[in-house]
Amino acid sequence: MSIEEQIRSIAKEELEAQLAEAEKRLKAARSKETKAVRDQIEALGGRFDEIEVKFEELYSRLGKLEEELSNRWGLLVKLRKYTLDQLMSEYKRLTGSLRPEQEESVENAEI
Fold first, then answer.
1. Per-position DSSP letters for 65-89, written without gaps between them
2. How far apart are CA 111 and CA 37, in angstroms?
3. What's the CA gap between 89 and 82, in Å, rounded?
4. Long-range contacts of 72-80 (CB under 8 A, 24+ apart)
5. Alpha-carbon distance 89 to 83, whole Å?
């Protein structure tokens, strides 16, 4: 083997060793990055679960508030109807008691 071939062989072996070392470091770095990304994804998944629970609680509270508002609105409508009926009844009673007096005053005026 000539000196040139020996140099090429040594250089090739050295380059292959360096390449293998670089690949090994790259795999280790990728592994660390992959683990870090996986951990971040798991953390985000946990946060999404927490957010989902919060949304469910909010929807539940919103449903209760809507029901309560509906009940209050129904009570208000009933109260207004009752009050209106009561006012109409009172008005009829008052106009009924005032009309006989008006009729008497009309009859007295004619006499």
1. HHHHHHHHHHHHHHHHHHHHHHHHH
2. 108
3. 10
4. none
5. 10
Tokens of 93: 């009673």
Structure tokens of 105? 């005053």
Using CA atoms, how far residue 19 sits from 15, 50, 86, 93, 107, in Å, is 6, 46, 97, 107, 126
37-53 residue pLDDT tens = 999 999 999 999 999 99
Task: Kindly report the pTM of this predicted structure.
Answer: 0.46
What's the length of the chain? 111
Residue 96: the pLDDT is 83
What's the pLDDT score for residue 111?
Answer: 56
